[in-house]
Amino acid sequence: MNLSSGDAEDDKSQDVYGRAEHFERERAVEADVDRDERTLDAASAAEVAARSGEVRVSHASAEELDAVFGSPDGDSTVSGVRPGAVVEAIKGGEVYGSKGFAPRDVYLKDGLVAERFSGAQGAVLDASGCYVIPGLVDIHFHGANMGDVSDGSMEGLHAMGSYEASRGVTAMCPATMTLPESVLTEALVTAAAYEPAWNESDLVGVNMEGPFIAPTKVGAQNPEYVQVPSIEAFRRMQEASGGLIKLIDIAPEVDGADEFIEALHDDVRISLAHMSATYDDAAHAFDLGAKHLTHLFNAMDPMHHRKPGPIPAAAERDDVTAEIIADGVHIHPAMVRLAFKLFGDERMVLISDTLRAAGLADGVYDLGGQDVTVKGPVATIEAGNLAGSVSDLMRCLYVAVKDMDIPLHSAVKAATENPARCIGMDDRYGSLEPGHAADAVLLDKETLEIRAVVLRGRLL
Fold this sequence. Notes:
The chain is of the alpha/beta class. The protein has helices spanning 19-32, 42-52, 62-69, 154-166, 181-193, 231-241, 257-264, 279-288, 310-315, 333-343, 393-402, 408-415, 417-422; strands at residues 87-91, 94-97, 100-103, 106-109, 112-114, 123-126, 130-134, 136-138, 143-144, 147-148, 169-172, 175-176, 202-203, 206-208, 245-250, 269-272, 292-293, 321-325, 348-351, 363-367, 370-375, 378-380, 440-444, 450-455, 458-459. The chain has two domains: 5-30 and 135-430, Metal-dependent hydrolases (TIM Barrel); 35-133 and 452-459, Urease, subunit C, domain 1, CATH 2.30.40. It has 13 helices and 25 strands. Helix 6 (231-241) links the parallel strand 14 and strand 15 (245-250). Helix 11 packs antiparallel against helix 12 (408-415).
């Protein structure tokens, strides 16, 4: 979660950088899209849930799922293929690879990308006129669809997983808030027990955004629960989660930060966040083993020619990655382009930082015990600070490309390969190379709208 109180004056406007009006137009267009062409509607999803019974685990057998959905020649949605069908091949599309897009076919088998066509009875998707990209990986968002990881609610996690999957985000690493250890522990234990239904994203880790942040840069975090970094507290929570914590945020200038980084940098990726750190503070933290920067430009001092701050300290180190929220509200397009120039697309990570309000109507929602008012694309707490986003990662990718002139290949890399690598999950997620999860998204080449999502080898 982002902006400090010092950022509030520049960000109170409801039409930030003119993006709110644009967002509303885009959202209206999206509402008119016939979603039956690519995913189950709410009634169908409820029917499936009622029929599926115990078929919830992500790697249910083909026989179990076919017992639920029937034969592959049932009701069609994409290329004559019905939801829930096993997909054996995606043909005719321009496929993302680490070096660019190229026309090729993608083969799938047993929930993984395969080297060759298996010749089984699965469906073949026609991707003509589409880009085929890996499922997105969001390593910093708090919730969606009324769920929030900090609630410690299994129902909320399933609501999040369903929404994220429908938007092509097939691997999620949600972020907790600054809360008491007991509350965080409950959230972590619940996350560790999550098993996705067939149409829900994998939960591949947790990002602890608090509580080890600077009281001067709390942003939308609750200052009542800010703590100095504690090695012992982290280890207790990591044990409770079964090792699920993949990212931990810390303000490098606070007492105990050095000891924390030195002790834990080999166990978890440490990110600098919510800080008043100088250039020297940040450089020292990177020397000690920190390797990530949370929501670049937000909740940190800006660059200045005499007081450079933490951003140049991160940019000049090849092993440090940086997140950015490209929702059209948090960061001006010129600064997003500058970030990609500074870090290169190998080190940039697109995140959404969404709240539980993502996917829902305008209104007032809870975030870590504070009320957040959502109007269009803008979410604010009572003090006026921006309080995260309501634009999911696929929307952020769209905005980065269409509104900010980030090359499509760079944006996809920053939403797939790079975040998967940051959390040590790039051997399974973020790629369409053989051996990786059979997660793919078909995007219309003209509009970049989602045409189909394949999750663990099944068409949503």
